[in-house]
Amino acid sequence: MRAIILLILACVGTTVSAEVFTWRDADGKVHFADTPPPGVDAKKTRAGTQPGATPASGAAGRSLAEQDMEFRKRQAEADKSRAKSEQEKKDAEDSKRNCADAKRQLSALESGQRMSRLNEAGESIPLDDAMRAQEIEKARGAVQSWCK
């Protein structure tokens, strides 16, 4: 019967703003009571709170509309951060792919194998030494810009 009464008081006690005193005994155990024993250094707290506990960022003082607005703001910031992260990942993959393509092009040009380009009419024109040198310089520039 006593346990039931203590349980009921514990549930109801959290809504009551009565004063509660806390102290530690010689063994280090924490005690709670509405009146401290004489000669003990007891600290006064409110019922239903832990000693030293603070309210969670003033949530009790804000209206539901303000809390909802803050939640939506945090959610929008998280979405924006996620989108930025995904875009950075995509850009890194594109850069890596472009670097690999530029290196392959430069390697092919420097290998000395026969290569050709299409002219405006769509005809294949073999690269001569001057054209190959120009293409090699372009490829080196591409490697420098994409492979950082």
Core attributes:
three-stranded antiparallel sheet, 5 strands, alpha+beta, 2 domains, 148 residues, 53% helix
How would the blueprint of this fold be written?
Layout: H1 2-13, E1 19-24, E2 30-33, E3 43-46, H2 64-111, E4 116-118, E5 124-126, H3 129-146
Antiparallel strand pairs: 1-2, 1-3, 4-5
Helix pairs in contact: 2-3
Explain the overall architecture:
The protein has helices at about 1-15, 65-110, 130-145, and strands at about 20-25, 30-35, 45, 115-120, 125. It folds into two domains: about 15-50, no CATH class; about 60-115 and about 125-145. The chain is rod-shaped, with a radius of gyration of 37 Å. The model has no long low-confidence stretch (mean pLDDT about 80). The chain starts with a helix and ends with a helix. By secondary structure, the chain is of the alpha+beta class. It contains three helices and five strands, in the order αβββαββα. The protein is about 55% helix and about 15% strand. The strands form two sheets. The chain has a three-stranded antiparallel beta sheet with strand order 2-1-3, with no helix packed on it. The protein has a two-stranded antiparallel ribbon with strand order 4-5.
